[in-house]
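Quick one, probably user error.
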């Protein structure tokens, strides 16, 4: 009929992916990790060390940001949603093994894919090792020289590996705007959820 407007198509409701608590845990952890990486770079790259100066202050900031790194995770344990996602990250099922074997076009994942689970587990272990070796380097009078030397070696090389892995994580997130939107706002497009995580809501 002339003069009438067609009904506006309904917009599919977005799917909740992360709670506010989970997003804050991610943000604070990312901030602390960023400070750790930046201060480490200033301590080990001569050009940055000369540019920034104030080495004692940089060391202090590096030590305390590293010491506080587990704090967001521990605080997040008060959130039921956070604990629920930890359980999902800690479970590796047949579809995860299939995800690792098959090409991208044939991969099926739950809320978290196998790559995200491996990354989360590796990062948790790396942070604990970095914390332990960092404490041995900080309180030098508590351990023998051989322990401190070994801790320094492990700490330095693991820090370099962490930098590379985190850069890869950031690069993959940058390539997926909807995944970033999910972490920023807490919700994602249902079509994205069905395409990237088809087993999530079944």
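Nope, works fine. Designed sequence:
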């Amino acid at each position: 009929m002339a003069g009438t407007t067609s009904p506006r198509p309904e917009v599919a409701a977005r799917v909740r992916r992360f709670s506010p608590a989970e997003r804050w845990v991610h943000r604070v952890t990312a901030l602390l990790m960023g400070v750790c990486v930046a201060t480490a770079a200033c301590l080990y790259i001569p050009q940055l060390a000369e540019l920034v100066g104030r080495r004692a202050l940089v060391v202090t900031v590096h030590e305390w940001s590293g010491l506080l790194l587990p704090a967001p995770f521990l605080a997040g344990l008060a959130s039921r949603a956070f604990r629920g996602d930890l359980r999902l990250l800690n479970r590796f099922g047949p579809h995860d093994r299939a995800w690792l074997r098959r090409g991208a076009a044939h991969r099926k994942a739950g809320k978290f894919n196998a790559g995200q689970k491996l990354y989360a587990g590796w990062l948790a272990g790396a942070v604990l090792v970095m914390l332990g070796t960092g404490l041995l380097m900080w309180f030098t009078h508590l351990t023998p020289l051989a322990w401190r030397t070994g801790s320094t070696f492990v700490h330095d090389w693991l820090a370099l590996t962490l930098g590379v892995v985190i850069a890869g994580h950031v690069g993959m997130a940058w390539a997926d705007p909807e995944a970033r939107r999910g972490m920023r706002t807490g919700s994602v497009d249902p079509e994205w959820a069905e395409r990237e995580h088809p087993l999530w809501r079944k």
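Residues 6-11 have pLDDT under 50 and may be disordered.
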